[in-house]
Each structure stands twice: as C-alpha cells, then as structure tokens.
Amino acid sequence: MQTNKLMRTLVLGLSVATLAACQSGPSEAELEAERNRVAQEQAAAEEQARIAEQKRVEAEAAKRRQELEDAKNAELDALKNLNTVLFDFDRATVKAEFTDVLKRHADFLIANRDQNVVINGHTDSRGTPEYNIALGERRAKAVETYFLNAGVRGSQISVVSYGEEDPAVMGATEYAFAQNRRAVVVYQ
Q1: Which of 38, 116, 132, 159 could covalently link to 188 via disulfide, CB atoms 3.0 to 4.6 Å apart?
Q2: Which of 119, 108, 109, 82 is nearest to 97 (CA)?
Q3: 164 CB burial (10 A radius; 0-12, 13-18, 19+)
Q4: Taking the CA of residue 56 as centre, how many other CA atoms within 13 Å lie in the half-sphere pointing to its CB?
C-alpha cells in the first residue's frame, strides 16, 4: 500500500509539476500578440525599405533630368555662338559651308520640340530699302526651308527681315558687306 500511496503521490506530483510548467509559458493570446508585433515590425521595415527605394529612384531620376537639362543648355549655348549663316551678294541660297551648322540647329530643334527660333534676315546697305527687306526675308526663309526639310516643325520657326537696318559690321568695305549679308538664328 505504501508503494501505491507513493505512486499516487508521485503521479499527482508529476501532474502538478506538468501543470505548473504549462502555466509558466506564454498563453495562446500572448503568443498571438507576439506574432502580431513581429509582423508589424516586418511590415514597418518593409515600408521603410520601399520608401527609401522610392526616394533613391526619384533622386536618380532627378539627377538624370538635371544632367539632360545641363546637356541641353550646353548645346544651346554652343548653338547661340554658331547662329549666323552668311550669303553671297544678292543671293538667298544657303552655302554648303553652313549646312553642318544648320544641321546642328535642326537636330537640336527636333530633339527639343518646346524650343522656338526666330530667323532674322539681313542685307548689306546696297540696294533700295524695299529690295533689301525682300532679300532679307528670302535669306531667312532659305534657312527656314532647310529646317523644315530636316524635320523641324513649322510652329517652332518665325521669320523676320531687317533688310539693311541692323548691320553686324559698320562700314562700306567688302568685309563689312559680307558680314552683313546674313541670316541669324535666335532662340526664344
């Protein structure tokens, strides 16, 4: 009997110890709360990573836009220094030596459809004012025709003739006359 009593005590003690051990661990509600906390931390970390990646992508895109804008401005500055086409006396035909310059302008205008130009036609002082206005217009239109044939939109181009009114070089020398027979591409 005593063995039986000892066995009962041992079984009862083991049961109590097992119960005590089970009660000392986290409850199902505590485990669920911990899982929720971990999931929220992971979600927050993923959101922070997504926001950081989005900011990185936006910064990279802004950098690329700025580089393109800088390249565009550099090209525009270079073109502003190569903006004059000279013509022979009493002619409105673009000389072959200026086709490379006009091609650069046309390529820039095609690539930058928001950019507009005014082509100013000029003459030297020989001839009547009426004739020179008409000749200046023909010279400006010759440049406009080159641009249109290259693919520049007509809405990007305006033509103005100054005739002899706005000389580049003052004087009545052959050099002055040659410098004044011109069309000038002016960016707006």
Answers
A1: 116
A2: 82
A3: buried
A4: 6
Taking Cα atoms as reference points, which of 131, 102, 104 lies closest to residue 119? 102
- Structure tokens given for 62: 């802004």
Contact 143, 85 (CB under 8 A): yes
CA dist 188 and 148 (Å) reads: 18
Whole-model pTM: value is: 0.71
